[in-house]
Write a structure and sequence with these properties.
Largest sheet: 7 strands, mixed
Shape: flat
Number of helices: 26
CATH class of the largest domain: Mainly Alpha
Strand content: 15-25%
Radius of gyration: 34 Å
Number of domains: 5
């Protein structure tokens, strides 16, 4: 066993691509090492200029590979006297084995010659030199660069390749760069060559050269420095884990500086100031007493800022940004949102779906239809008003400068215009949830408008044949659909989603896709998002499948059924119930549906009568419980049928010779099964 070190030093790699690049490199390398029969434990290190793989317990020599190869039939491989024919000798020669070593194996298709082929293992150093270059060259990035003669193509030009196995150089060429044992320190603080002998030597010398290769160490250092600098001015850094992650990817030598800005800028809405600091300059705001303080924390790739030049530079840029924001805030305020609506006709939403003024009209109409379906018609006035204004901020200067604030700016401007709280909050929130940990819109008005906006977009683009394919989702429709599901579940809204999609599709008019085909595809698309969300909440995949394979037009209802089945699975009654359902389902799948109605007079067996009696007594209770969504109680009633079902299957022959008796027994089982699938299809449950 040996250690392994592989480092690619390049121009600065964008922080946004590094997390995915780390995952991809580790996944590709792990698979390649396993396929090459080298084993080992791999880890990834990275900085803004380098990607590195470190391996422990890697085999210094491949294991021999053994495989059995099937040849011609034995009847062709040997003659009547048992001597090998030309077919056998040719087969043996082709695979490098002696003809005497062939054996006859009994396979499903008959007796065949089989050769045991052994491929000797090779030194790991040789194998790694072959597998590493293509592994890196095939990595994918959102944008690629070419350099030199234009042949190399990667995220950034590569300067050096360090490749060591057990202290020895692994010979290879990557993007025209020969491998060696040399790397380089920090670009400005210690730019000299570093000759390395192994992993620990590499780590020690890089750290001495102002490079911290470990991402987690850099991030922890940023947290420590941020807390200390904020505390010096009586504050604390804003809680922003994602920005700290970005900082850690931006540098090789972690350092934080603190700057200040004119407190007069605090008169602007906090959302605008925070977005300007975070999105434009990757700054971490400082908070004191729950309020934004006139200070910020900025990242730098230095050992420190003894003269304060970095802090002053950031302060100058911040003041300029905030001055622009104040101008936009004041200038935009001269025109009410409502008066901006005609300008939406000049802003294209999608070529075939029209401009944002047309989209706004569709959102208004769909919001009213959703209100009727959700029982929110008493909010009609506010719903229509919010839907009318919901996209107006897209033609403000503030959103042009700060695109990430769309929606939020609309809410802020609507509040300043004197709109009702439910209306301005709806505008503010209608892009929520924007991420997995983001909340849904606060009020019912915001939730309905957010649903209408997403359903309009999804149905329109699906109707044009622009559904996501594979990993491609240029319109972020999966995220939009997940937002629909989140809103419905969080607000526990009872919505017939396929019917709402039909409403949305009808408002587009003239979509090229056939209506039935479109709605079927949309139903499957939304169900897959519901499945993802329920499983991400910890529900067992087979429990989720048991519910989602039944009729699920109402997603909040489906989620409640999943929770009820999950609760029942923890009780002793569940296993017999699931077994009985599966047996019942197996019988019904093979039995013809003769359309018979259950008739107690045609029952000939006591066990059959007992099951029918228990079922008929339970059916009325089940109807009431299911209608009132008391699924946990309904499942308990179903579980109470378990003993009767067991006795029935033990003593009764369902497929009786008498056709009337057989049809009646099938009708009984079908009636019970149909009651069960109002909650879940238990045949999907494993174990």
């Amino acid at each position: 066993m040996a250690e392994f070190l592989f480092e690619i030093l390049a121009e600065e790699i964008p922080a946004g691509v590094l997390p995915a690049a780390r995952e991809e490199l580790l996944a590709r390398a792990t698979a390649a090492f396993a396929e090459a029969r080298l084993g080992g434990t791999l880890a990834v290190h990275s900085t803004s200029r380098r990607l590195a793989l470190v391996g422990e317990d890697v085999a210094d020599h491949q294991r021999d590979a053994e495989a059995e190869v099937t040849g011609p039939p034995a009847s062709i491989g040997y003659d009547a006297d048992g001597n090998p024919t030309k077919a056998a000798t040719g087969f043996a020669k082709a695979h490098g084995v002696a003809v005497e070593d062939l054996r006859v194996a009994s396979l499903p298709k008959g007796a065949y010659l089989v050769a045991r082929k052994v491929t000797p293992g090779r030194p790991a150093n040789e194998v790694l030199g072959e597998i590493l270059p293509p592994l890196v060259e095939k990595m994918t990035f959102p944008r690629m660069m070419r350099w030199g003669d234009g042949t190399p193509q990667w995220i950034r030009p590569v300067h050096s390749v360090l490749a060591l196995f057990d202290g020895l150089v692994i010979p290879m060429t990557l993007f025209g760069v020969e491998s060696g044992r040399t790397t380089y320190g920090h670009r400005t603080l210690a730019p000299g060559r570093i000759v390395t002998m192994g992993v620990s030597d590499w780590l020690q010398k890089l750290r001495a050269a102002h490079v911290e290769p470990d991402l987690a160490v850099r991030r922890a250092r940023f947290e420590e420095l941020s807390r200390a600098l904020a505390a010096e001015v009586g504050g604390e850094p804003a809680d922003d884990a994602a920005l700290l992650d970005t900082w850690a990817h931006l540098v090789e030598s972690p350092c934080v500086v603190r700057g200040s800005f004119d407190p007069a800028f605090l008169e602007l809405p906090e959302e605008i100031l925070v977005t300007s600091m975070r999105e434009h300059q990757k700054m971490l705001p400082v908070r004191a007493g729950g309020q934004l303080a006139p200070h910020f924390l900025a990242v730098c790739d230095q050992a420190g800022d003894p003269k304060g030049l970095i802090a002053r530079g950031n302060e100058w840029v911040t003041a300029a940004r905030f001055s622009d924001a104040r101008f936009f805030w004041d200038d935009d305020g001269k025109t009410r949102l409502e008066d901006r609506l005609p300008r939406l006709g000049n802003l294209q939403f999608q070529e075939a779906l029209g401009d944002y003024l047309k989209k706004t009209g569709r959102i208004q109409d769909l919001t009213e239809k959703l209100a009727a379906r959700l029982g929110l018609s008493h909010l009609d006035g506010m719903l229509v008003r919010a839907a009318k204004l919901v996209k107006a901020d897209l033609v403000t200067d503030m959103v042009r400068e700060f695109p990430d604030l769309q929606g939020v700016v609309g809410g802020l401007y609507a509040r300043r215009d004197g709109e009702r709280e439910e209306v301005w909050q709806a505008l503010y929130d209608h892009y929520r949830p924007a991420s997995a940990d983001d909340g849904v819109p606060r009020g019912d008005v915001g939730g309905a408008v957010a649903l209408a906006d997403r359903l309009d977009t999804i149905t329109g683009l699906f109707g044009l044949g622009l559904a996501p394919t594979g990993s491609r989702d240029p319109y972020a429709l999966r995220r939009a659909a997940l937002g629909v599901v989140r809103i419905l579940l969080d607000k526990k809204w009872r919505l017939d989603l396929p019917a709402a999609c039909a409403d949305a599709a009808a408002l587009h008019g003239g979509l090229p896709r056939a209506k039935d085909e479109l709605l079927e595809e949309l139903s499957a698309f939304f169900l897959e998002r519901l499945r993802f969300l329920l499983e991400s909440k910890g529900h067992a995949p087979d429990t989720v499948a048991a519910v989602l394979t039944t009729a699920c037009p109402d997603f909040a209802d489906a989620a409640e059924r999943v929770e009820a089945v999950e609760a029942l699975r923890k009780e002793q009654d569940f296993a017999p119930l699931a077994t009985a359902f599966k047996r019942m389902q197996n019988i019904l799948e093979k039995a013809p549906d003769e359309g018979a109605e259950l008739d107690p007079a045609k029952m000939t067996d006591d066990a059959e009568r007992a099951l029918a009696l228990d079922y008929l007594q339970a059916r009325g209770m089940l109807d009431d419980l299911v209608a009132n969504r008391r699924y946990r109680d309904a499942l308990s009633i179903m579980a109470s049928l378990g003993p009767s079902l067991d006795l029935f299957f033990t003593e009764v022959l369902v497929m009786a010779e008498d056709p009337e008796v057989r049809a009646n027994r099938i009708a009984l089982l079908r009636s019970i099964r149909d009651q069960f699938v109002r909650v879940a299809r238990f045949s999907e449950i494993r174990g």
